[in-house]
Amino acid sequence: MVDLTRFSGRGAVITGGASGIGLRTAERIVSEGGTVCLWDIDPSRIDEAKEKLGPKAHGIALDIADPAAVAAAAPQAAEHLGKIDILICSAGIAGKNALVVDYPIEEWQRVFAINVHGLFYCNRFIVPFMKTNGYGRIVNVASIAGKEGNPTASAYSAAKAAVIGLTKSLGKELAKDNITVNAITPATVDTPILAQVSQAHIDYMLSKIPMGRFGTVDEIASIITWLASPECSFTTGAVFDVSGGRATY
Predict the structure, then answer these.
(1) Quick count: other Cβ atoms within 10 Å of Cβ 21?
(2) Active site residue 156
(3) Which sign does the torsion angle of CA 163, 169, 175, 179 carry?
(4) CB under 8 Å to 185, separation ≥6 — which residues?
(5) Which domains does the chain carry?
(6) Contact present, 189 and 21 (Cβ < 8 Å)
(7) pLDDT, tens digit only, all 249 positions of the chain
(8) Which residues cross the membrane (predicted)?
């Protein structure tokens, strides 16, 4: 049975927090006693999410690919929340579908700027607040593509593999600081990000899932909230599959 007060007194920063997986996770944390600060590039989307979540939700509009913006947002979030206990990095883009030999260089750089560099900036600038508090839970959203590689999605696959590597490195670095760092590797989830990819690629991804369906935001939020909770106290640098049976290792 879920403890509906397990996030009481906890403050969480959630990137991509105004829609999809990020928003559903924010709803779970708020419903279980926590306070959230949503980081999203779209101010209007933040306003809608805050109205939905109520007074325990704050928001900062920023582009996480801008290190100066992330450096400025971290202390603002700490002020909103009182302290930062949790970081959930769910912001990301799918990128275009193309063969490696045809992949546009600018698009490759854009995918890495958001999915890797932006996630790195968020981890880098928020960890010091957690170390000061002597407590932290970090959950980085990677993808099954980062473990298996999807054809015509090389930028996305490579970026999510980088997220896994960063998570494992940081988990070891913080293992004695009461800060856990873990990643999840979902298969395809029915979120607005599907609008960024071709129907052929969507069909391919569905064909690879033994359960024969996409994941739901509720299923992903469930494992994220466990990893973000005090219950996750002896697991760090780990990767959790949420893939409907697709994962092979």
Answers:
(1) 28
(2) yes
(3) negative
(4) 142, 143, 144, 146, 147, 160, 164, 239, 240, 241, 242, 243, 247
(5) 11-241 (3.40.50.720)
(6) yes
(7) 556 799 999 999 999 999 999 999 999 999 999 999 999 999 999 999 999 999 999 999 999 999 999 999 999 999 999 999 999 999 999 999 999 999 999 999 999 999 999 999 999 999 999 999 999 999 999 999 999 899 999 999 999 999 999 999 999 999 999 999 999 999 777 766 666 667 887 788 778 888 888 888 999 999 999 999 999 999 999 999 987 777 776
(8) none
Instruction: From the candidates 103, 156, 204, 249, give the one annotated as an active-site residue.
Output: 156
φ, ψ (nearest 5 deg) of residue 86:
-135, 140
